[in-house]
Protein 1
Amino acid sequence: MAHRDDIQGLRAVAVLLVALDHAGVRFLRGGYVGVDVFFVFSGLLITGVLLAAARETGRVSLREFYVRRARRIVPAAALTLVATDIAASQLLDVVRARRRRPPRPPFAR
């Protein structure tokens, strides 16, 4: 299946709706619609990929399909996990350090 910029754009809009809903943007409520739209278009794209494989080879290999997905997704997921771990360890150190500091008396210089 050829790359579909139109569908990828709609998927991006769906993700943006979810992100804005989580950010608390009041006039764009309804991130659940974004989730539904994202999954519908993802299903359309996945079906197209599987049908194209069936047309080319006469069969569908779910193993090959998932191996291709893993090669595409695992590097980004691993980077996200490592970056989140580093950021969390740094941010939590600041929070823990503030909790350990004794409170200052009022009007102290």
Protein 2
Amino acid sequence: MDRIMSAAIVTALVLAVSAPAGAADEKKKKKQAPDRSAVFTKLDANGDKKLSKEEFAKFTGLAEKKPGKEGKEPKGYASHRDEWFKNLDTNNDGFLSVEEFSKVKEVMAANPAKKKKTDK
């Protein structure tokens, strides 16, 4: 009887310790950037499986938006977007394919958007 009781207590402790770890994993998943192909599909307004410069102009990054900032563009993106497009368009056809767009994170890291400093 003592063995059964001890086993039940140990099992309960293991479950109690592992539950918060699972919750932390879920929270970490939610913080991850959205899938690039999903972002591509969202930007591809006409569904032609390629992004024009006009469609790419709506790109506001891969990071999840903070509550209340969903419609706002991060600072510095507007001035860098043309450069990113040019670097991503490896075949120079004026459009981005899914494959070209998949390298957006690397291109953004190589040419990061700089926030403008305000004079005080």
Protein 3
Amino acid sequence: MVATTAAPALRVLVVDDYPDTVESTAILLKLDGHEVETATDGVQGIGRATAFRPHLVLLDIGLAALDGYQVAGRIRDLGLPPKPLIVAVTGYGMTDDKHRSGEAGFDLHLLKPVDPETYRGLAALLQTSTDLVNRAHALAAQYRAAASEIMFRQLEMANTYLDAAHITGRGNERYIARATESYERLTTWLGSGACIDDRAAGLVNGLRALNERLKLMREPYGRFDSRKHPPRVEIKRQGSQ
């Protein structure tokens, strides 16, 4: 029998102005062995991030004084090592809200209420993508369904970055860089066996389409033709027909 080693803990920062949300999320993550710091406003969250250097930031958008968009941008500007994965955990779920999340520097946009298994799947994926676990160890089976849904949401966010670049015509390099990071992260996650089998084909198709969009967006200025812009692949949620 081959012995396996437990994945080292992640450092997770939870920022939300509802104390009950902060406490319950922190308890869940601590039970799974992660190190957790919390903050209840944006200024405190930036300070905690500077000192704690989290791998993962779960950040509410509707904060007083500094909102989550501002906080995400400032944490990005800190240039922390390691570069944290910043996740919006919010009640704002409209398309424009997701675009604003992408512009602010969020990597994912999760709509409240978030199932606890989603947090567990996200942590497991992040451990895989940051080499904190041995690649020979498959992602825990109980996390694969949640992890698969997160991967499709990451794909959606990558396309949102490119949508913003295409619509505004500004900051293309920044958006393309973020979409490229998402593509590389998804490729790593897919290679780890994280996606459940019946959704893997859809994810592969989505990644191919994303790669084609990236190729066109990288063409020298003046050569981009919106008529050739590959459309998004329709992302089917689990259980949809």
